[in-house]
Design goal:
Layout: H1 13-24, H2 38-49, H3 58-78
Helix pairs in contact: 1-3
Length: about 80
């Protein structure tokens, strides 16, 4: 999928964190998708659960991916993600 860099995120860090945590709690972080790259999993999550506009907004998508990666450790420690 082609993304365009917009230069600036239209979403706040709080909004991106909320979406990141929804992703981390989703089926796309489970064993079924273990062979998929993280960005492919995130793409599938956004296609199924939205907001799909992030798939076209490269800057905001990158910010979301950063928030997902920043929250992997806390998600593991809290038991949201399996070890």
């Amino acid at each position: 999928m082609s993304r365009t860099r917009t230069g600036r995120s239209r979403m706040t860090r709080t909004e991106l964190n909320a979406i990141a945590w929804r992703f981390l709690r989703s089926e796309f972080t489970r064993r079924t998708y273990a062979d998929w790259a993280l960005d492919r999993r995130l793409d599938a999550f956004l296609q199924h659960h939205g907001p799909t506009g992030l798939l076209r907004d490269g800057s905001t998508y990158d910010d979301l991916l950063d928030r997902v990666m920043a929250n992997v450790g806390p998600a593991l420690r809290s038991g949201v993600l399996p070890p």
